[in-house]
């Protein structure tokens, strides 16, 4: 059942987060909502009866990673110029949040009667103090995720992250003092308050010492590790040992984790590879953590506490926004800090949830935990719905949300990135650069024809150009084939576009009209009757009719010559050509096409050979030598530079490399449908992923 719970948390969190991203909401909001759906307020699939406390250990792992990540952003050198602003703003917003929450909660429960029968003034004060201490905390994970999503950087971002770090450090310390004071006023501690206060400072000092020791140990260990996997394993082991030791000694694992990150990032050696390595481990832990937190929110159990949750939420953000404005004014900070930084402190989740878990774990505070948990989670729910969006808004207003700024720039030009991609694939976006090379001299008599199917008025010019280039290399003539319904009228201007293009290149053109109800059978008939040396087809544009896959499959299956499919994207250029392959047989298939392209004009061509990422440097060098030797032995030499790349993701590797080229040429084996279903086709996948013009080559031969 635990494994099922684990799977449900991951799947639901991921799915709802993707939906939230559609509405420009941060992922963490989706995780919380997914938890609500899985918990008692939704389908009740994750509860104490189904999984018990078996998933709670992920909470301690997540909290350690969060606190460790906070420490990374308290780099003294970066904060040197802003230290006055950071200190004043952090102090004022912390005091503001504490005072506002304490005052609002105390007055609300005192004058409205919200509470437990038999409660006295000291109980109201205790509850208000605990909620005020929890209210100090900001959501470091949510804030960090927003910063990463929008690729934010700059003085405002640095100040925000530093204040979040200090904020949570203060929250952890003040929370410890609040617990000690509450135990005093409710009579659960036999020690004097001064002793408890001193003991609190000692405990904080011990937590910091444990974190400093862990940070120094990490630094020493990491310097002797080279591989990312080793760093992640060793670093995670030390951090979790630190967390468990802190728990065993009744110390703050959050404070220890933050101190470890702080030490590591401020060491003279500054080896921060562990932070990058842990980035690969964090996402599923965060999904489980936030989704699991959402399952604790039982809306039916809120009752009067739901009203208190709203008061808590409003008081907390009012205190933080007001405190930031006051602190920025005292420090003489830029107006943007005072105006917008408070919005970046609205998110609340990780540390606050961790603190209410600590309250729930203390038997002496059981009666308060029953009230605090729904109140804080109600506030967290509201904070996570609004907070990440306000943080994103603040980063955008100060001009440091670079990813959003790029998107806005495109929107100001009239298109989002997705709309721009669709436009460049459409008839409106496709364009053909006029022929600027010298006119070609055809061979008469010709050696046959290179046929192309003329279906769309926008792409027919490009198809004619490729047909003429290949025809010139093969000593043939280009032939335009039109398939029409039997009995349809024909126009003298039917072949005007392709005739004009072919003539501009110095060639005559053969044309043929085939009456046939089936485009596929008509094309096959024309190709076979004229003994075409090659067939060129164009991928359909978004506004074209469907059925292309069936036509392509039928043509490939029934002709004995190569079939080239052109996928148009924006302006057609052919000067810089990329040829990605994954095997020597792939290269053998596309090499005749590469040779034909090289026959005309000046080209810059690169062969990109993809190998698995675990291949050694020696293997890469050997493969490069083998490829250069193979090219040198060919009867038709092409000036083809060779790059051998080890990669974990072929699609992403090709996509990134293609950014520097005009045309991508790939081979696609004539594979049986069932094999293609299971194993796919890299070339056909790239037609959807690469934002460049493409040639997909289907060479003749027996199907595999």
Task: Give the averaged pLDDT, no decimals.
Answer: 81
Number of domains: 3
Q: What gross morphology would you assign?
A: elongated
Fill in the CATH topology of the largest domain.
Answer: Na+/H+ antiporter like fold
Helix content: 55-70%
Distance between termini?
Answer: 44 Å
CATH level-two architecture of the largest domain? Up-down Bundle
Number of helices: 28
The structural class is: alpha/beta
Biggest sheet strand line-up: 4-3-2-5-6-12-11-8-9-10
Strand content: 5-15%
Q: Flag low-confidence runs.
A: none
Number of E-type strands: 12
CATH class of the largest domain: Mainly Alpha
**Rg on CA atoms, Å:** 33 Å
**Main β-sheet, in a few words?**
10 strands, mixed
What do these coordinates show?
This protein is an alpha/beta fold. It has helices at 2-22, 27-38, 57-72, 76-79, 83-112, 121-135, 140-149, 155-185, 193-222, 228-248, 253-266, 273-279, 282-295, 304-331, 335-340, 350-360, 366-397, 402-412, 417-425, 460-473, 496-504, 519-529, 548-558, 584-598, 617-633, 650-658, 673-679, 682-689; strands at residues 431-432, 449-453, 477-484, 510-515, 534-538, 563-567, 571-572, 576-581, 604-612, 640-647, 663-667, 693-698. The longest helix has 32 residues, at 366-397. The relative contact order is 0.09.
Brief rundown of the structure:
The chain has helices spanning about 1-20, 25-40, 55-70, 75-80, 85-110, 120-135, 140-150, 155-185, 195-220, 230-250, 255-265, 275-280, 280-295, 305-330, 335-340, 350-360, 365-395, 400-410, 415-425, 460-475, 495-505, 520-530, 550-560, 585-600, 615-635, 650-660, 675-680, 680-690, and strands at about 430, 450-455, 475-485, 510-515, 535-540, 565, 570, 575-580, 605-610, 640-645, 665, 695-700.
């Amino acid at each position: 059942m635990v494994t099922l719970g684990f799977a449900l948390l991951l799947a639901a969190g991921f799915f709802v987060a993707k939906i939230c991203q559609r509405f420009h909401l941060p992922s963490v909001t989706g995780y919380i909502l997914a938890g609500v759906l899985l918990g008692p307020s939704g389908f009740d699939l994750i509860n104490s009866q189904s999984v018990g406390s078996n998933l709670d250990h992920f909470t301690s792992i997540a909290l350690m990673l969060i606190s460790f990540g906070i420490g990374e952003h308290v780099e003294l050198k970066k904060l040197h110029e802003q230290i006055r602003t950071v200190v004043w703003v952090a102090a004022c917003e912390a005091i503001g949040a504490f005072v506002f929450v304490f005052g609002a909660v105390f007055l609300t429960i005192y004058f409205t009667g919200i509470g437990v029968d038999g409660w006295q003034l000291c109980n109201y004060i205790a509850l208000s103090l605990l909620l005020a201490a929890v209210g100090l905390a900001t959501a470091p994970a949510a804030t960090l995720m927003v910063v990463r999503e929008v690729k934010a950087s700059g003085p405002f971002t640095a100040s925000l992250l530093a204040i979040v770090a200090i904020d949570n450090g203060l929250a952890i310390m003040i929370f410890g003092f609040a617990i000690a004071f509450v135990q005093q006023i409710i009579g659960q501690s036999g020690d004097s308050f001064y002793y408890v206060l001193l003991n609190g400072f000692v405990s904080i000092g011990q937590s910091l010492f444990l974190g400093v020791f862990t940070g120094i140990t990490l630094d020493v260990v990491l310097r002797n590790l080279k591989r990312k996997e080793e760093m992640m394993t060793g670093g995670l082991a030390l951090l979790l040992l630190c967390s468990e030791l802190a728990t065993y000694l009744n110390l703050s694992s959050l404070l220890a984790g933050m101190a470890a990150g702080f030490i590591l990032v401020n060491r003279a050696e500054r080896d921060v590879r562990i932070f990058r390595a842990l980035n690969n481990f964090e996402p599923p832990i965060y999904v489980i953590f936030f989704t699991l937190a959402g399952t604790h929110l039982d809306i039916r159990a809120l009752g009067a506490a739901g009203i208190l949750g709203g008061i808590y939420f409003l008081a907390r953000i009012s205190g933080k926004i007001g405190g930031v404005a006051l602190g920025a004014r005292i420090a003489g900070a830029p107006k943007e800090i005072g105006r917008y930084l408070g919005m970046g402190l609205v998110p609340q989740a990780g540390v606050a949830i961790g603190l209410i878990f600590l309250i729930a774990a203390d038997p002496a505070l059981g009666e308060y935990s029953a009230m605090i948990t729904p109140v804080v989670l109600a506030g967290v729910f509201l904070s996570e719905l609004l907070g990440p969006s306000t943080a994103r808004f603040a980063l955008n207003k100060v001009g440091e949300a670079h990813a959003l700024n790029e998107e806005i720039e495109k929107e100001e030009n009239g298109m989002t990135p997705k709309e721009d991609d669709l436009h460049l694939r459409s008839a409106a976006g496709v364009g053909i650069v006029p022929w600027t090379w010298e006119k070609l001299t055809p061979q008469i008599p010709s050696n046959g024809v290179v046929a192309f199917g003329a279906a769309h008025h926008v792409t027919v010019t490009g198809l004619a150009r490729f047909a003429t280039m290949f025809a010139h290399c093969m000593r043939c003539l280009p032939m335009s084939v039109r398939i029409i319904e039997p009995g349809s009228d024909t126009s003298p201007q039917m072949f005007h576009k392709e005739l004009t293009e072919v003539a501009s290149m110095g060639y005559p053109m053969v044309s043929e009209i085939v009456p046939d109800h089936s485009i596929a059978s008509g094309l096959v008939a024309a190709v076979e009757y004229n003994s075409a040396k090659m067939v060129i087809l164009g991928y359909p544009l978004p506004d074209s009719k469907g059925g292309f896959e069936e036509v392509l499959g039928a043509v490939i299956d029934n002709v004995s010559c190569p079939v080239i499919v052109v996928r148009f994207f924006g302006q057609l250029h052919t000067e810089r050509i990329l040829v990605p392959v994954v095997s020597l047989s792939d290269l053998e298939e596309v090499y005749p096409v590469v040779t034909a392209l090289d026959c005309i004009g000046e080209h810059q061509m690169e062969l990109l050979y993809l190998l698995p990422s675990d291949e050694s440097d020696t293997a890469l060098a050997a493969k490069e030598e083998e490829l250069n030797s193979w090219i040198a032995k060919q009867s038709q030499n092409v000036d083809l530079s060779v790059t051998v790349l080890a990669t974990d993701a072929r699609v992403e590797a090709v996509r990134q490399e293609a950014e520097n080229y005009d045309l991508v040429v790939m081979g696609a084996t004539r594979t049986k449908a069932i094999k293609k279903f299971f194993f796919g086709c890299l070339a056909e996948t790239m037609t959807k992923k690469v934002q460049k013009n493409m040639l997909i080559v289907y060479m003749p031969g027996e199907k595999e």
